[in-house]
Specification:
12 strands; 2 domains; 6-stranded antiparallel beta barrel; 267 residues; Thrombin, subunit H; 6-stranded antiparallel β-barrel; alpha+beta
């Protein structure tokens, strides 16, 4: 029974204090005390906010920015390393090729391919990183290993433009590797080539290689003999025609090349 009386007494005291605090708050008697606590706690709240903001900024800005810069630097190094490996392989393979001789070759990077859209169009013209200042001349042959890619058609001081063998304006004399049949290779555009003007009496074989016959000029430009132009993939021979012809396919996917070699001083 005493415990029940004590509980009732505590309840009445707390209930009375609650009514007094509520009434004082409504009447404004506690405003000075409320302002006091706000003045004391506000600087502490501001300081806590500023410190937390600084910590967040440091973590989200400074560290992330540093990581981004490091990632960019590593990416650039990886790109440079990959290009160096590819260039070294291209140079090693090219200078191990006996024809044309390495003393006649000028390495050049592919820096442009006007009109080329992957999956839609094929390259017919390529811009190279060497020009007149490097000894490049109109009509110089451009090769990769022992394959003829095209010829220089325009020269600037530090750049040059090359028309590929499949370019519609391209033609050169040639002969087949195994049978010696002579003809004229003509570019058809869109990556296509034909071997035309072959006598009906000459033999053509599917799969045979077609090579340059050689037409170096007195100015030391043109095509050295024995370079691979392409492979015969089909033959068209009609007894009523004056000549037979064959469709050719290049052995090189030019769009995959980053480096080519200009024959600037054939010997």
């Amino acid at each position: 029974m005493p415990k029940k009386n004590n509980f009732l007494a505590y309840f009445l005291v707390l209930f009375t204090l609650s009514l007094l605090i509520f009434g004082s708050s409504k009447l404004g008697f506690l405003n000075p005390l409320d302002s006091f606590f706000k003045n004391v706690l506000s600087p502490l709240q501001l300081l806590t906010y500023q410190v937390s903001t600084k910590i967040t900024d440091f973590g989200s800005n400074s560290q992330i920015q540093t990581l981004k810069l490091q990632n960019l630097e590593l990416t650039n190094k990886l790109i440079d390393q990959t290009k160096l490996v590819e260039d070294n392989k291209a140079l090693r393979d090219q200078f191990q090729t006996e024809n044309p001789r390495s003393q006649s070759l000028l390495p050049a990077d592919v820096v442009g391919a006007p009109g080329f859209i992957p999956g839609i169009s094929v390259s017919e013209e390529v811009i190279l990183s060497k020009g007149a200042n490097d000894g490049v001349k109109l009509g110089d042959a451009v090769v990769y290993e022992n394959n003829l890619l095209g010829k220089i058609t325009s020269v600037a001081p530090s750049l040059s433009s090359m028309a590929l063998v499949a370019n519609g304006s391209f033609s050169l004399t040639s002969q087949t590797f195994s049978t010696g049949a002579q003809g004229v290779v003509k570019g058809q555009g869109g990556g296509a080539m034909i071997l035309d003007n072959v006598l009906l009496s000459d033999s053509l074989k599917r799969g045979d290689l077609v090579l340059t016959k050689g037409d170096i000029t007195i100015e030391n430009t043109g095509f050295p003999p024995g370079l691979v132009i392409g492979r015969i993939i089909s033959i068209s021979k009609n007894p009523s025609d004056l000549f037979q012809r064959a469709a050719l396919q290049s052995l090189i996917n030019v769009s995959k090349l980053n480096k080519m070699f200009i024959v600037t001083n054939y010997r």
